Amino acid sequence: MSQNNNSFKILATLFGISLLVFGVIYGGITLTGKLGNNTETMSTERAISRLDRLCKNITINTVEPRKEHINIDPVNLMDTLPDISKYPIQVKNTTTTYIEIFSSPEKAGDGKDGWLVEMAKAFNNSNIVINASNVSVKIRSISSGEGMDYIVSGKYLPDAFTPSNELWGEMLKSKDANITLIEKRLVGNIAGVLLSKRKHKQLTDKYGDINIRTITEAVAENELDMGYTNPFASSTGLNYLLSTLSTFDQSDILSEKAIQGFEKFQLNIPFVSYTTLQMRESARSGILDGFILEYQTFVNSPELKRDYIFTPFGVRHDSPMYAIGNLSYEKQEILAAFIEFCKSNENQKTASEYGFNSFDDYSPEFEYFDGDSISQAQRLWKEKKDSNYDIVAVFVADVSGSMMGEPLNMLKESLLSASKFIKSDTSIGLVSFGTNVTINLPIAKFDLNQRSLFTGAVKDLTLDGNTAMFDGIIVALRMLLEEKEKNPNAKLMLFVLGDGEPNYGHKFNDVSGLLKSLRIPVYTIGYNANIDELERLSLINEAAFINADTEDVAYKLGSLFNAQM
């Protein structure tokens, strides 16, 4: 490793001279955003000037990246599915005769998100007998998209599956999965767009009625800062994608008219979260005019009820129940008994207390989507969502002493595994931080050459003392902005991988305003991590946080890269 400070000072001088040009590129735009309850306004030029000053206090090293052998065989995200034990069993079976049910998290979580958990516990305590045997159920919480992946791949098959809506069932049928719809509605729910009261009034004054069509038009006309969730993982996000495409062409969501409308719409979308529950957490920062959420989640969030107005859209989220495979007669009877138990008047009353079973009179604007069209819409989303931009991302890796052993090994393995899902036209760079900051790989298109260099650079990461996390972020920001100067069409992203325990160099407050003003999302991946510190970084611009200690990070990162890059 060799220090290269003189070269960096020359670059700093040149970069400072280029500020005027950069200001012209950005058109003198002033960006505004909220930090907690405070609002900070900073021009692009001022943000870059501050960044330039911060860089002067950082020791920056460079290394010559080396090439490493790479595997160019096609990859499938399902191949990275973790052992099913990564997904929590919310309710254990209490008998040897039982069925296992995959359930979406909004009803198989904790607190108000735990209705199905309470139902399963009560069912298991009821001493129900079928064929002279006591029976029970096991509930495993898993997002609808991930549950579908397990079933399609055959890597793990539950006895039953209750996603949020029927869209996943239609896709499973189109992929030749052996499933049978047993119950269309286990518990009632709907999806909706939440608009701030201020924005709702503005749009009502202009459009009159507020519905999915007027909301889509407002986004397309850049009148609404809207956030939604990843349609590969989130039921609400998938519903929203299909509803949006339908507003442009109800007769064919894959027509040229629909695609053109979606491209214009997507141009003005600043934020795509990973799941609906993550969207709920991100929304609390108040940066967005609108975002999507299920009603049950909305009604259980007092701060959202206070500040936002709910507008229904899309197909209903009534938690259908599917049997998986050829269940034995005994298992069919257990499933039927559990459904009957859940649908009793008393237990449906409990569901209402948990926020379900509202808007029973709501009818979808768009009633049916076949599985093949849904899958094609997902592929269209990935292809077209950033078609007007060139994605540029820098990975910022923690190599401090606290990452010794398994955390650093896991960081390397997960980053190399997930990088297989990055498209070749995405530009990628790599920075590491310990006591000092090292530019391990300058930004370049992720072609075979850059993939090889990236693989070598990741494998060569070595431990280095303290944890100057924010110094690493500052240097990575500068690399991104230099790329933006060369390519005004660049869409910038940061990925910070580490334990979130900075103890050296700059602080959170040194970078938060910069990130907010420049609107660069910071995706954080925590290994044996201070979760609060990393989540705080991601929430600045509504990006995702992945906890490697509780989630399978290779699959989660692969899903994130597959969707975003």
Task: Describe the structure using short key phrases.
single chain, 565 residues, alpha/beta, Rossmann fold, D-Maltodextrin-Binding Protein, domain 2, 3 domains, eight-stranded mixed sheet, seven-stranded mixed sheet, 22 helices, 22 strands
Account of the protein in words:
- With 565 residues, the chain is of the alpha/beta class.
- It folds into three domains: 249 residues, Rossmann fold; 139 residues, Periplasmic binding protein-like II (D-Maltodextrin-Binding Protein, domain 2), CATH 3.40.190.10; 138 residues, D-Maltodextrin-Binding Protein, domain 2, CATH 3.40.190.
- Helices cover 42% and strands 21% of the residues.
- The protein contains 22 helices and 22 strands.
- An eight-stranded mixed sheet has the order 1-4-19-18-17-20-21-22, with helices on both faces. Strands 5, 6, 7, 8, 9, 10 and 16 form a seven-stranded mixed sheet that branches.
- The longest helix has 18 residues.
- The radius of gyration is 25 Å and the shape is globular.
- The N terminus is likely disordered.
How does CATH name the architecture of the largest domain? 3-Layer(aba) Sandwich
The total strand number stands at 22
CATH topology of the largest domain, by name, is Rossmann fold
Q: In what range is the share of β-strand residues?
A: 15-25%
Q: What does the largest sheet look like?
A: 8 strands, mixed
In round numbers, the mean pLDDT is: 85
User: How many helix segments?
Assistant: 22
CATH class of the largest domain: Alpha Beta
